[in-house]
Amino acid sequence: MGIVKKQAYKNTIVSYFGMVVAYVNTILLFPFFTKNEEYGLYNLLIGISVLYSLIASFGIPQIISRYFPFYRTPDRLHNGFMHWTALFSLLGFVATTILFIVLKPAIIHAYTGGKSSLLIDYYYYLVPLALFTVFFNFLEMTGRIIYRTIFSSFLRDVLVRLITTALLGMIALGWIDFKQFIALYIASWGLICVILLINLALSGEFSYRVNDLKFAAIQKKELINYGLITVVSVSVYVLLQKVDIIMLSSIVGDAKQGVYSWYFNIAMVISVPASALSRTTYQIVSDAWKAKDMKNIADVYNKTSIVQMLVGCLLFVGIISNQGNLLHIVHDPEKIKEFDIFIVIGLGFLVDITGGLNTYIVTTSHKYRLVTVWVICSSLLCIGLNYFLIPRYGGMGAAIAYLATMAALNFCTWYYIKTRFHMQPFTSKHLIVIAITIASYFLGKYLWQLPNVYADIIVRSGVITGFYGVLIYLFNIAPDVNEKVDKTLVKLKLRS
Fold first, then answer.
1. Rounded Cα–Cα distance for residues 93 and 137 (Å)
2. Where are the domains of the chain?
């Protein structure tokens, strides 16, 4: 766990700094400088481009993570493995883009037949955005396999968001319009791709010589089969995260989808600890499977579950306790009456992150095909629920569908791992975290209200965090966290 702890802490710091920037953008800038339908389109473009890029990648990031240890060589050429995966990824993007262009009439009809008309004007913006996403995902996974995860996290979670902040400021000053904002946002993804490529080139871990490459040693059929299977499961899993946005735009329009996306993006903060940990633990689990080290997998499984849960619950209760302050700042009637959407989506994120490494463990095992089956079934469930619930309940219907789907998927993966591999992450400590979370909620609910909204946010959040943190420490919920706290206290000379 040494590598996991070191990089996870750094990734968490980067992720939370990025989260602060994202919150400034989401709560203070987007609502005031863009319309609800424009914010809805912004999220729709991101959602479609993520799916587009995943399909176009042909599962290459997952292939790299699983198979790179078998092809790694001291000469840094790695049997041409990285060159072959880069070429295969490029071919996948070209093929998918041709299909994307050919299917334009059908895709546009699906949205113009519904309520999302802005997509027509921005359809081809998706091509460069997806290209840069494919490129960045490839480079990021390349960094992960050599345990260089911090810099890519900074680029995506911090730099892109700071650029977004600057672009929103330019809209406020009247220097650019919304269309130029989208174009420059896409260009920012191209910029971080170039920066990350240079960073990896300087790492000395890879050789870029191509004249003496031989691909004969590469088991192409096995890799392609694995890539195609995993791209289906990963794409459908991401579809679970994005199908609500896509269907809301089509059924009820970009404006209402914009309100839903606003709450969804606020709730995403709950998943930040899981995202930070996964960038390191995914490769740890993959290496452990190769070494048949089940004890290490079980240890990582348990620790990530409890840490992700305790941090996620704190964030969840903190946001709920500041409901009045949040809505006072935004002062948007459409958002004020839909706060319950956040609660339901937040519960969905909590269910997902508390499952720990459920999906990762099965995906990196020899039973990886099962994940594809589970995710496809979950996707069908999610689409079906959205189809029936969105017309009746709008954004709340999509939120309910998301929560139900996350619960079903995580239960299936948890039950399989428990019965097949005889490991599961849950202990009595999870129940203690729930009890502490409920107590923290009532503390936050009945705290006095300060006259200044910003002062109230600081004081209310500080009191809740202090109360929650002390109880987590006293009950020794996460020994690794307690160890870190103890070392910090010693450094500050608050403990001998």
1. 13
2. 2-426, 429-488
